[in-house]
Amino acid sequence: MNTEFDRRLASILEESNLEENQTLNNWTNRTPETPFIASLLEDPRIYLHSEQLIGEDSVPVHSNANSYGTNTNWHSDRTDHNICAIKNVMYLQSTTAARGALRVIPGSHKNPLHEDLLRIGLRHIDGEKDKFLEESNLSGEDIPCYLFNSEPGDIITFNELTWHAAFGGYRDRRTCTFNFYRNPKAPEEIEAMKKEVEYTSKNNGRYGTMGLQYHPWWLENPDHNSRRARWINWLKEWGFVDAYDSQKIELK
Ligand SMILES: O=C(O)CCC(=O)C(=O)O
Fold first, then answer.
1. What class is the 66-182 domain?
2. Cys staple from 54: which of 16, 50, 89, 182, with CB 3.0 to 4.6 Å?
3. Residue 74 phi, psi (nearest 5)
4. Residue 209 CB neighbours (<10 A)
């Protein structure tokens, strides 16, 4: 994974006009440059427990890689409880409390805790101070949490509503993420998913994810993998393929 990560990071850096010392994160994994990482979605070590948790008809909507340069402050990846999505994250270096280990606040995927944390202002908003931390004179590291010390090869799976953070950041701290969505069934879940697709097609550029989320190389499905074929149909039917790939500047 690190070999493919190195290669892809190098080619992205070559094609981007980054200032010296600027780091970038969030590029897509389903590319011919990263065939092993792309194939992990179809590896039972990734999809099996995801399907056990959120349904055999769940779908990997995102598969991304990140090279961070710093900490990640407390946040949740989503706030709409009508979409059930899980993140599988692998850290490509050993992590400890002082070296970027993932922290989660147990139970914060559920209300009232989820919204209480929003209300008190734990979430860091770019350019602003963390209201809660500032007022309480605490730092992000002081927030009680569960901390995952992990080794490359470990997968940490959590509900995307869960509040999480990482401290002790350093340059080129690496993760790969494989995110599965539950197939919506209830009317409010269907409505929420439609809104997500609509939001994605309007705001895709803002996410700053580099490369096509569903590269034609992956969509071709040359080995006729039946699981991948089901995912592709779902992603096309819901409009995710158009929403994510139509406005992207393609990187190899
Ligand atoms: O910086 C980190 O390790 C946390 C990453 C994160 O927030 C995520 O994967 O959603």
1. mainly beta
2. 182
3. -60, 130
4. 18
